[in-house]
Protein: SET domain-containing protein
Organism: Sinocyclocheilus rhinocerous
Amino acid sequence: FFFFYVGQSIRQVIADMRERRYEKEGIGSSYLFRVDQDIIIDATKCGNLARFINHSCNPNCYAKIVTVEAQKKIVIYSRQPVNVNEEITYDYKFPIEDEKIPCLCAAENCRGTLN
Ligand SMILES: [Zn+2]
């Protein structure tokens, strides 16, 4: 199966501003998904279920960026048949930063951090 990651397509500057605002508002994890160097999809306020997908180092889905009518979109594809009760996960592939976010996915090949 596959589905779209729905959200508002915004530029880097806006994403930085919103990230700070969400932090202030206490929205712990913001749902900002990087598409490329300059475009980020913000699903915080108008996303669909895709934004609740958790990270796993050994995921059953993967995210791919496709261009539909000159607009970049994120599509989540399943890598294998997924059971109804099975949790859907994918590898967030966060950029490497000094401040590490611990990963709690419990996969055998867990990298230990999200970035
Ligand atoms: Zn992990």
Remarks:
- The pocket of zinc ion is lined by residues 57, 103, 105, 107, 110-111 (CB under 6 Å).
